[in-house]
Amino acid sequence: MVCILSFIVLSITGLFSSTHRELAKEAWGCVWRRVTLRPCTVGFKEKIKGRLVAWLLGRSTLAAKILNRYFELLSWTLVVLTMVSTFWTVRGLYNYYFYGSCNGLNSTGFCVFDPAGENNQVSSLNTQCSDKPQKESDVILSPVPVEEFPTKNAGVKNQVVFIGCYSCDYTRKSYPLIQQLIKETGAQYTFVHFPVKPETKYLSAYAQCIADQNIEQFWKWNDVVFASEKSDIAKPEYIQTLMEKNGIDTKKVLECVNDPKTAETVNRQYNQIKSTHLYGTPTIFFNGRAYVGPKPYRVYRNALRRFLPW
Amino acid sequence: MTPSHNEAFNAHAIHEFSFWFMDLQKLRNDFPLLASPSNKPVMYFDNACMSLKPRAVINAMNQYYEQFPACGGPGRSGHALGARVREAVDQSRQTIARAIGAQHPNEIIFTRNTTESINLVARSFRWNAGDVVLTTDKEHNSNLIPWLNTRRLSNIRHAVIPSLPDNTFDLSAFEQLLKLGSVRLVSVGLVSNLDGVRVPIAEIIKRAHAAGAMVMVDAAQAMLHSPLNVQALGVDFLAFSGHKMLGPTGTGVLYGKRELLENLEPFLLGGDTVSATTYTDFQLLDVPERFEAGLQDYAGIIGLGAAMEYLQSIGWPFIESQDQQMNRIITEGIAHLKGVHMIGPADPALRGGIVAFTIKGMDHHQVAVMLEQMNAILVRSGQHCVHSWFGSRGIPGSVRASVAFYNTVDEAEQFVQAMEKITTLL
Ligand SMILES: Cc1ncc(COP(=O)(O)O)c(C=O)c1O
After folding, report:
1. Same domain for A50 and A129
2. B122 near B150, Cβ under 8 Å?
3. A82 and A152 both lie in a single domain
């Protein structure tokens, strides 16, 4: 046990000290002998024990006494702890790489690689009180009538559904990344506006109506809205100017927007989106799996990759 | 007494008066490891394994490398440098012969170490099947395995003389074994590397000779600690290592009475061992050349001569009194500590320069590591190549502190303090 533990520890400290490097080599010899079912030859355990106990003896006789007496037990404990922490570190690295958080997809616990938790921030819907923690696995796409929303590249294998809010910072952060992803992968892409902020709630109807009129013009307009100042897009006059600039038939759109049927549809859709158990924006579904909060690009890219053949 | 003999004894007498004035610090300055302020200070208590080297030895070797790094050996290069090598080697041989009281320098054969010297006898002796070789029960592997191997190769028998309970030599057990007859050779370690105990060599030789047996003395542990006179004792063969007596590493000596050496059958032959060869035969050179095959470690041999001279310049009374003092301080300081069990007789006067012990409840290697870690005290731990003794007693190993004349009272006291601290863990 001691040799395994020493090998792990000394391999790390050996990066900085040549004496530790020597000991690490010895420890490896010892591990290898153990693996091949032979006893260690060099009295390696005694060497390590002697060094540690001597070091402690200079500081606290009691501590040295305890280490001397329970060395085997302590080293077993440390090996188990080392293995457990190694497992968690590897898991954390894996999660961080694939999901942007050490703790797994959309988990908000502390992560050393992302200490500020940037990758899991959301613009919350503080509409309801939840008595249990909100989890990505609870968020489902099925209540959303995807076909009713503006969609690109329909019918291809990978499907991305972006639920965001025009005036929310985190949605604005991930929007350009998703545009890049769609350009790069050609995945099917649906944009769903979910107004978290009241001042841009009116844009749901605009989006709906513009897309109905001319889908290509809609995508252009959508990009411009996200690129505009938050304060500007809260004003319908500004939005109308944007429409004009992009060659959209403003009159027709306004007719549609003012139609009570549109309001009804938008309302229905709003409730349908809410029943996905969505708890913040952006919420992006990759082939039905929700990723909540702005993630690094590699996470989005990996979400569409298949690493295993099955 | 021969003239060389007289000289040695006179030197001995002079030193007896002078050792009181010996300045230990000045003497320590002769040893680069102890003198150089750039060296991390260590307390060196592993002298039984390897002694430190004085500057005189290093200089003598450097002189060879820098001034006459040429071939020695009979019939080799006749030029001036070659002549200087031969001269220096001869001088070394003479110094050693004189120091151990050999009758003639040609009785000195240079080897690599004690092990080689003993093997040379074991391999070259003209054995008869059934010959008995006696060793004690606490021999170094180098004075055990060669005989076990000879038993296999030449059909000899090997018997072990058991020691008394305090690890000292049992003369009556020895006598019993001699009485069984056919004992051809008694090969004993003069001073044990296990516990420092010295065997009563004069008595052993007397009784062995009376029984018609020869005696080979393994003096590896004796040369740094006490004088020895092979003629006065009647030693037949003597083996020792240079590196344990201030000399260069990889140097050793086999002394043998001339007529005995002439009767050995050299087993290592080649360049420098023959005066003439044909395609079918060869003519061996005389002793000692016939045993020194191939080019030799000339620098080492010259350094060994310098070591012997240096050792003699210190004087045995001083050396012996230092050994005794250190051993007494350490023994008295640690023998009563919790868990400590001394190996060998309780009286430090019977254990030369060695203090060996076990600690109940603590591994010997761990103790050695702690001594080094805590106080830079260097000792040896393990079975010290006497596996047979440890194995037969079920003792896993011991800690061994071995002193030399350059150790100080302060070092011995620090050793004791470190041990006091370590044993508080028990
Ligand atoms: C008593 C004794 N004999 C023989 C030897 C072997 O000496 P070397 O290794 O120099 O041949 C030793 C070395 O420790 C020894 O202590």
Report:
1. no
2. yes
3. no
pLDDT score for A307: 58
User: Has residue B16 got a pLDDT over 60?
Assistant: no
The arithmetic mean of pLDDT across residues B3-9, rounded, is 47
Q: Judge if A240 and A138 occupy the same domain.
A: yes
Collect all residues of chain A within an 8 Å Cβ-Cβ radius of residue B381: 43
Whether residue A132 lies inside any domain: the answer is yes
C-alpha span between B99 and B305 (Å, rounded): 10
Assign B2 a pLDDT band (cuts: 50, 70, 90).
very low
Do the Cβ atoms of A50 and B424 come within 8 Å?
no
Specify the pTM.
Answer: 0.74
For B174-202, what is each residue's pLDDT tens digit? Answer: 999 999 999 999 999 999 999 999 999 99
Mutation site for B-interface testing, chosen from A68, A69, A71, A72 by largest number of B Cβ within 10 Å: A68
Q: For residue B300, what are its two tokens?
A: 């080492």
Per-residue pLDDT band at A104 (split at 50, 70, 90): confident
Domain co-membership, A158 together with A187: yes
End-to-end CA distance of chain B: give it in Å, rounded.
57
Is residue A109 domain-resident?
Answer: no
Structural domains of chain B ordered from first start: 24-52+316-423 (3.90.1150.10), 58-313 (3.40.640.10)
Residue B291: name the closest of B272, B318, B278 by CA: B272
Q: What CATH number does residue A222 fall under?
A: 3.40.30.10
Q: What is the pLDDT of residue B76?
A: 75
Q: Among the three residues A99, A128, A152, which one is the final residue of a domain in this structure?
A: A99
Question: Chain A residue with minimal CA distance to B368?
Answer: A50
Q: Which residue of A49, A59, A62, A65 to mutate against B (max B Cβ within 10 Å)?
A: A49
- DSSP structure string for B14-40: HHHHHGGG--HHHHHTTSHHHH-TTSP
What integer is the mean pLDDT of A118-134? Answer: 61
> What pLDDT, on a 0 to 100 scale, did the predictor assign at position A39?
66
Given a cut of 60, is residue B312 above it in pLDDT? yes
- A207 falls within a domain: yes
The pair of three-digit structure tokens given for residue B36, joined into one six-digit string: 């150089």
Residue A1 reports pLDDT greater than 70: no
Residues of B in contact with A72 (CB under 8 A): none
Q: Are residues A243 and A163 in the same domain?
A: yes
Residue B316 Cα, gap to closest chain A Cα (Å)? 37
Same domain, A54 and A181: no
Torsion over CA: A295, A298, A302, A308 (sign): negative
C-alpha angle B124/B125/B129, rounded to 5°?
125
Interface pTM, i.e. ipTM: 0.81
Mean pLDDT, range B216-234, rounded to an integer:
98
Q: Are residues A148 and A245 in the same domain?
A: yes
Residue A14 has a pLDDT of: 66
* Per-residue pLDDT tens digits for A37-73: 776 665 788 888 999 999 999 999 999 999 999 988 8
Task: Compute how many other C-beta atoms are within 10 angstroms of the C-beta atom of residue A147.
Answer: 8
Q: Tell me how close the Cα of A85 comes to any Cα of chain B, in angstroms.
A: 29
In a domain, A110, yes or no: no
Query: Is pLDDT of B358 > 90?
Result: yes
Does the beta-carbon distance from B373 to A51 stay under 8 Å? Answer: yes
**What is the average pLDDT across A143-165?**
91
Structural domain boundaries enclosing A134: 118-303
- Mapping DSSP to helix (H, G, I), strand (E, B) and coil, where does residue A142 land? coil
Distance A170 CA to ligand 1 centre (A): 78
Question: How far is ligand 1, taken at its centre, from the CA of residue B201, in Å?
Answer: 18
Strands B252-256 and B108-111: antiparallel
To 10 degrees, what angle do helices B364-375 and A44-57 make? 40
Instruction: Work out how many domains chain A is built from and give that number.
Output: 2
Active site residue B385: yes
Token pair recorded at residue A62: 């009691």
Report whether A33 contacts B396 (CB < 8 A): no
| Ligand 1 centroid from CA B225, angstroms | 15
Domain boundary among A50, A65, A99: A99
* Statement to judge: residues A77 and A23 lie in one domain: yes
